[in-house]
Specification:
It is built from five helices and no strands. 57% of the residues lie in helices and 0% in strands. It is mainly α and 113 residues long. The protein starts with a helix and ends with a helix. The longest helix has 26 residues, at 2-27.
């Protein structure tokens, strides 16, 4: 008797789970809302890029052509190591590049140095 009751309960549970999965797949994610918590001084990516572009344009406009020529004539900096320079790309989902300036990140600061 217990086996038939357990079998019936298991079958009922499996049918319920299947029904919920079908209903979820059919309805999709139309009712799911995503929200984002803004930080102090938070700006959109477009604003950050525009500010960066403006700062780069100001640097170019304010640059002294003679000083730029002098820096180009200097010898390249000798670095230790026996290979070409390496670029380390660190990607953290949801962590924009300007967040590193907004908080204390000693590990990343040491890594950058």
């Amino acid at each position: 008797m217990f086996r038939s009751l357990a079998s019936s309960a298991f079958s009922f549970l499996a049918i319920l789970i299947f029904a919920f999965v079908v209903i979820f797949l059919y309805s999709g994610s139309s009712g799911v809302a995503f929200s984002r918590v803004a930080m102090d001084g938070d700006r959109s990516t477009a604003q950050v890029l525009e500010d960066f572009r403006k700062s780069q344009m100001e640097e170019v406009a304010n640059a002294d052509p003679l000083e730029a020529a002098e820096t180009m004539e200097r010898e390249p900096v000798q670095r230790s190591g026996d290979g070409p320079p390496v670029v380390l790309w660190v990607s953290i989902p949801g962590f924009r590049g300007d967040y590193i300036d907004k908080s204390d990140t000693p590990f990343f600061d040491d890594l950058i140095d």
